[in-house]
Write a structure and sequence with these properties.
heterodimer; A: 135 residues; mainly beta; 5-stranded antiparallel sheet; B: 393 residues; alpha/beta; Peroxisomal Thiolase, Chain A, domain 1; 9-stranded mixed sheet; two-stranded antiparallel ribbon; 11 strands; 31% helix
């Protein structure tokens, strides 16, 4: 495992199932049993109806690029050495958007609407980070 | 609801003209600004009952400022919602004054972003090592190398995708505002630029080039707000608060259409309170962190239809003498942007409404009503929008 010099997430009770699933190679999101709404990022309360009757459901892990930017300048350690890289908002099939990087893709080929699928990179023993690549 | 229109007025202003000030503290810049703004109004320390400030660097900013200036305000507001916080402050000061809680408030801000070497737009989460990320939302965002520029750039990219907006149209915003900066002796950049200069500058985060991005400076300022009774006894003619609107926009659990910004929510309340229409606005101060910010804001304020912003900003419409002159001080894109810029929108709108530049090219002719819109945070993730409409007697 290469040394990870990018930021790592902080894991707490309400987000632990997400990170546990990522470690197993599954992308999960939340769905409220009371109002049937999906939500992302994960949280301990349904942000729509404020119920705590939330289920974790496995996402298809597929979606399309909603917006992107090729980043040429970022002074943060780990990214400064990584430019140019693609920062994107991906809209999952379930209809929620999440931030990610598009990997295994030339910066000149990335497009809004491009179909993408999740792929994981192990950052530490506890954390695997979900990225997306062209599907 | 109580009618808040003309419930308070801006009676004193000061811009600390420094763009680079390594030898002063942020509190000193605020203190000097407050003193001069009160002089401008013809008021004194003892008149101030409300203290409004925001900071991303001063801990407990209101408390520490009151200590520094030895003030005992009976109304304190540290609302901090990014660069547009000061439009929120004016809105709150209006409410406090109209409710009779206070007769006079001071709003102030300062920052040493430039001399402190703060990479406001491209620093990412941490230039020197990583802090512990908050469990949410940071832990779902900062893993991917977000920058402030990047969060606006994504909106620009999608605007181009949906509406055919071009880099040249974005550049028109920067060119018009630079033209105004050339009339402001205090502006950081005073050399004219062309559309070609903007589109040929290096890309910071596609599609935004260097000259699509605001400058980084030191600086600060202060605004004195007074009740109608007090305002009539001040040195300067009052600049009335006609209407205000506040809004927040965020990811909406991943489902919000992020192309619609907070201005869409704050504009109608402000226009309704003021009882004016878009045609009545003689000039506007539009928060210009990036060129795309101006296009998105003009659309969602209702000056043009969604998607038509690129066309709207072209052909000199935003220049003094055009249909809607904006950012006549040179804006954040060319004059100054010390971390947060919202207070400078209020300062320049007040100068224009006082006809302070009469007889010079910087004065907007027959300027009776001005609109300020502050945006704080980032369009691509979460941000605030504060709309203020001001008018002279």
């Amino acid at each position: 495992m290469p040394e990870w010099n990018k930021p790592l997430p902080s894991v707490v009770g309400e987000t632990k199932p997400y990170w546990d699933s990522c470690r197993r190679g599954d992308l999960v999101i939340q769905k409220c049993d009371d109002c049937n709404e999906y939500q992302f990022y994960p949280r301990g309360i349904c942000s729509n109806c404020w119920s705590n009757n939330i289920q974790w459901v496995k996402s298809t892990g597929r979606g399309t690029i909603w917006a992107y930017t090729v980043t040429y300048q970022n002074r943060t350690l780990g990214f400064a050495q990584d430019v140019p890289y693609i920062l994107a908002l991906v809209e999952l099939d379930e209809g929620v958007k999440m931030f990610t990087n598009i990997v295994e893709c030339e910066t000149s080929n990335v497009q809004i609407g491009m179909p993408v699928e999740v792929t994981f990179v192990q950052a530490s023993n506890q954390i695997s980070v979900p990225y997306f690549r062209p599907a | 609801m109580v009618d808040l229109k003309r419930g308070a007025a801006i009676v004193g202003i000061n811009e600390h003209i420094t763009r680079y000030s390594p030898d002063k503290s942020e509190l000193q810049i605020q203190g000097e600004s407050v003193i001069k703004a009160l002089e401008d109004a013809g008021l004194t320390k003892n008149d101030v009952e409300g203290l409004f400030t925001a900071s991303s660097s001063i801990r407990n900013s209101g408390l520490n400022l009151a200590d520094y200036l030895d003030m005992y305000p009976k109304y304190v507001d540290n609302t901090t919602v990014g660069g547009g916080s000061f439009e929120f402050h004016l809105s709150h000061a209006l409410t406090a004054i109209a409710a009779g809680r206070i007769n006079c408030a001071v709003i102030t801000y300062s920052s040493l972003a430039r001399s402190g070497g703060v990479s406001v737009g491209t620093g990412g989460v941490a230039r020197f090592g990583h802090p512990r990320l908050d469990p949410s939302p940071d832990s779902f965002e900062e893993l991917y190398g977000l920058t402030t520029v990047g969060l606006y750039a994504m909106i620009a990219q999608r605007h181009m995708h949906l509406y055919g907006t071009t880099s040249e149209q974005l550049a028109e915003v920067a060119v018009a505002i630079r033209k105004h900066a050339c009339m402001n002796p205090e502006a950081l950049f005073r050399t004219p630029i062309t559309v070609e200069d903007v589109v040929n500058a290096r890309v910071i985060s596609s599609p935004l080039h260097l000259l699509d991005c605001c400058v980084i400076t030191d600086g600060g300022g202060a605004v004195v707000v007074a009740s109608p009774e007090l305002a009539r006894n001040c040195k300067q003619s009052p600049v009335w608060v006609l209407g205000v609107g506040e809004a927040l926009a965020h990811q909406g659990a991943g489902k919000r259409n992020l192309m619609e910004i907070a201005a869409k929510q704050s504009t109608n309340p402000a226009f309704a309170m003021a009882g004016v229409t878009h045609k009545d606005i003689d000039m506007a101060m539009i928060y210009d962190s990036f060129t795309i910010t101006v296009i998105e804001t003009l659309e969602d304020l209702g000056f043009c239809k969604k998607g038509e912003g690129g066309e709207f900003v072209s052909g000199g419409r935003l220049e003094i003498g055009g249909d809607l002159p904006i950012n006549t001080d040179g804006g954040g894109l060319s004059s100054n942007h010390p971390g947060m810029r919202g207070i400078f929108l209020l300062l320049e709108a007040t100068r224009q409404l006082r006809h302070q530049f009469e007889g010079t090219p910087r004065q907007v002719a027959n300027c009776n009503i001005a609109l300020c819109h502050g945006t704080g945070g980032a369009l691509g993730s979460r941000h605030s929008g504060g709309t203020v409409i001001l008018g002279r007697d």
